[in-house]
């Protein structure tokens, strides 16, 4: 029987076998590693396939190299063209340089510089990057037009049987690792090339394995396809997990996933951020967002997976350095639970400290935003964390008992973007201080209590916990008279107990803030 006449799943299995003898010209098998989840509560036995340790720091080299090895001499002469958000492009670049094939790679204009530089590093003189459009889909349109006019061969990132088969070799390594069989595998999905091939191969050897596809809440194209029983195009796609931000699932991957998947789960960006932190704290692995999606789903189902052996794949580590800071500060990336509250207090000296003393004792203030904008009342915003869900849950009752009016501001846009109002016309004799204090429980409270209590009104506060041992805040104080302000500044030690440095800021800064 001709191979092309075989059912798709059998053709895919054959192609994975053939890919065995091709892909290892370009890279070596990646390791499996045990991950022990933090925390005392029980969980599954987790094994991690470390594709972030591959030649291009992601699994995409497998499919691109397998497909390009099979090009005819005529196709090699005409070159190849592709579109990619970054990872597939690196695989094509690696194959192009190794095989001596020229490649044009279309990437969205928003592609992180780290991925562009990696493509050039792996491809050298054999690749040319063309930035086109603002999304992967727009880059695909430009690449397809290039294919039509130039005669170059288009190497699809996922909707190609040989590309899928190349990705499937990572599952072959899992089977041969000796760490199986596995009860479940959590596989992230973009276009579906990796998830379809890996699920197909795992089910071949472990027929009872549960296959769970994982997608981002705002990019669940495979879930939509399975519901509609055909690939459908999403109107909007969230690109936080840029490696899986695909508007429409591939036709070939969909046909396989329809057979192999037990279910598809979605994870939020906050859950992915939490998983990235766990990978760092356990394996010292810096994963890109899409690479941590499988673990995010495992964490979400931790209790249900107790006692089971679970496989996840870290699909890549090609993350823009600047994104790491955003992830570290994002909701969900911390170990503690958090909540943002806006509390009304009277606008008078000592009112802020009274609130901290009475209601926030035992809680960690991770973010503090306040600016004077009313003469009679203040509405400071506190983002509070605690290792105890019960302590945090008790905060509203403590505020109610203290007679405070409050609002839940968790997730509010103005809090996230730090829109801190300040009316300069309400200030009498202000001074702004740059404070560097030691990050320990109660240090900030002690500073305010010791040096400021009843001497001035707090008119501005901008502080966000950064994870350093030193906390940094910009504080505004308003005094009733110029003499009181001068006396305070004369007595203020630059260094003191609980803080490393406290310096008045320049008059120009004060003028800009209070204008």
Automatic annotation (TrEMBL):
<dbReference type="Pfam" id="PF00291">
    <property type="entry name" value="PALP"/>
</dbReference>
<keyword id="KW-0028">Amino-acid biosynthesis</keyword>
<keyword id="KW-0100">Branched-chain amino acid biosynthesis</keyword>
<comment type="pathway">
    <text>Amino-acid biosynthesis; L-isoleucine biosynthesis; 2-oxobutanoate from L-threonine: step 1/1.</text>
</comment>
<feature type="domain" description="ACT-like">
    <location>
        <begin position="339"/>
        <end position="411"/>
    </location>
</feature>
<keyword id="KW-0412">Isoleucine biosynthesis</keyword>
<dbReference type="GO" id="GO:0006565">
    <property type="term" value="P:L-serine catabolic process"/>
</dbReference>
<dbReference type="InterPro" id="IPR038110">
    <property type="entry name" value="TD_ACT-like_sf"/>
</dbReference>
<dbReference type="InterPro" id="IPR001721">
    <property type="entry name" value="TD_ACT-like"/>
</dbReference>
<keyword id="KW-0663">Pyridoxal phosphate</keyword>
<dbReference type="Pfam" id="PF00585">
    <property type="entry name" value="Thr_dehydrat_C"/>
</dbReference>
<keyword id="KW-0456">Lyase</keyword>
<feature type="domain" description="ACT-like">
    <location>
        <begin position="431"/>
        <end position="506"/>
    </location>
</feature>
<dbReference type="InterPro" id="IPR045865">
    <property type="entry name" value="ACT-like_dom_sf"/>
</dbReference>
<dbReference type="GO" id="GO:0009097">
    <property type="term" value="P:isoleucine biosynthetic process"/>
</dbReference>
<dbReference type="InterPro" id="IPR036052">
    <property type="entry name" value="TrpB-like_PALP_sf"/>
</dbReference>
<dbReference type="InterPro" id="IPR001926">
    <property type="entry name" value="TrpB-like_PALP"/>
</dbReference>
<dbReference type="GO" id="GO:0003941">
    <property type="term" value="F:L-serine ammonia-lyase activity"/>
</dbReference>
<dbReference type="GO" id="GO:0004794">
    <property type="term" value="F:threonine deaminase activity"/>
</dbReference>
<dbReference type="InterPro" id="IPR050147">
    <property type="entry name" value="Ser/Thr_Dehydratase"/>
</dbReference>
<comment type="similarity">
    <text>Belongs to the serine/threonine dehydratase family.</text>
</comment>
<protein>
    <recommendedName>
        <fullName>threonine ammonia-lyase</fullName>
        <ecNumber>4.3.1.19</ecNumber>
    </recommendedName>
</protein>
């Amino acid at each position: 029987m001709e191979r092309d006449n075989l059912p798709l799943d059998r053709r895919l299995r054959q192609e994975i076998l053939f890919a065995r003898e091709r892909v290892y010209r370009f890279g070596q098998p990646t390791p499996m590693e045990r991950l022990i989840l933090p925390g005392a509560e029980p969980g599954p036995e987790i094994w991690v396939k470390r594709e972030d340790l591959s030649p291009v720091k992601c699994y995409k080299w497998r499919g691109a190299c397998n497909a390009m090895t099979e090009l005819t001499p005529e196709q090699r002469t005409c070159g190849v063209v592709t579109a990619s958000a970054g990872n597939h492009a690196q695989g094509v670049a690696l194959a192009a340089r190794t095989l001596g094939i020229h490649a044009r790679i279309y990437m969205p204009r928003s592609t992180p510089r780290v991925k562009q530089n990696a493509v050039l590093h792996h491809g050298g003189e054999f690749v040319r990057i063309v930035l086109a459009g603002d999304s992967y889909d727009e880059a695909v349109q430009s690449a397809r037009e290039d294919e039509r006019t130039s005669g170059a061969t288009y190497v699809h990132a996922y909707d190609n049987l040989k590309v899928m088969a190349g990705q499937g070799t990572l599952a072959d390594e899992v089977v041969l690792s000796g760490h199986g069989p596995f009860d479940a595998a959590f596989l992230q999905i973009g276009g579906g090339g990796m998830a379809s091939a890996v699920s197909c191969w795992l089910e071949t050897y472990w027929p009872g394995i549960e296959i769970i596809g994982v997608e981002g809440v705002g990019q669940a194209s495979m879930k939509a396809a399975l519901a509609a029983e055909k690939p459908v195009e999403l109107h909007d796609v969230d690109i936080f997990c840029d490696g899986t931000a695909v508007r429409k699932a591939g036709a070939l991957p969909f046909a396989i996933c329809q057979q192999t998947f037990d279910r598809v789960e979605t994870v939020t960006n906050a859950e992915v951020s939490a998983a990235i932190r766990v990978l760092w704290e356990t394996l010292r692995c810096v994963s890109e967002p899409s690479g941590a999606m499988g673990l995010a789903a495992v964490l979400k189902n931790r209790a249900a997976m107790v006692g089971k052996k679970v496989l996840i794949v870290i699909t890549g580590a090609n993350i823009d350095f600047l994104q790491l800071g955003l992830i570290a500060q994002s909701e969900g990336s911390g170990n503690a639970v958090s909540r943002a509250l806006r509390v009304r207090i009277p606008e008078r000296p000592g009112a802020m400290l009274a609130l901290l003393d009475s209601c926030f004792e035992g809680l960690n203030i991770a973010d503090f935003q306040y600016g004077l904008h009313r003469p009679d009342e203040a509405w400071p915003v506190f983002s509070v964390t605690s290792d105890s869900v019960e302590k945090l849950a008790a905060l509203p009752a403590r505020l109610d008992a203290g007679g405070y009016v409050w609002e839940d501001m968790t997730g509010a846009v103005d809090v996230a973007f730090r829109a801190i109002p300040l009316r300069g016309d309400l200030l009498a004799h202000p001074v702004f201080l740059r404070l560097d204090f030691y990050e320990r429980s109660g240090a900030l409270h002690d500073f305010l209590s010791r040096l400021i209590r009843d001497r001035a009104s707090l008119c501005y506060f901008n502080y966000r916990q950064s994870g350093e041992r030193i906390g940094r805040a910009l504080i505004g104080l308003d005094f009733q008279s110029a003499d009181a302000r001068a006396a305070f500044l004369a007595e203020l030690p630059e260094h003191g107990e609980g803080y490393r440095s406290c310096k008045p800021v320049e008059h120009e800064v004060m003028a800009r803030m209070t204008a």
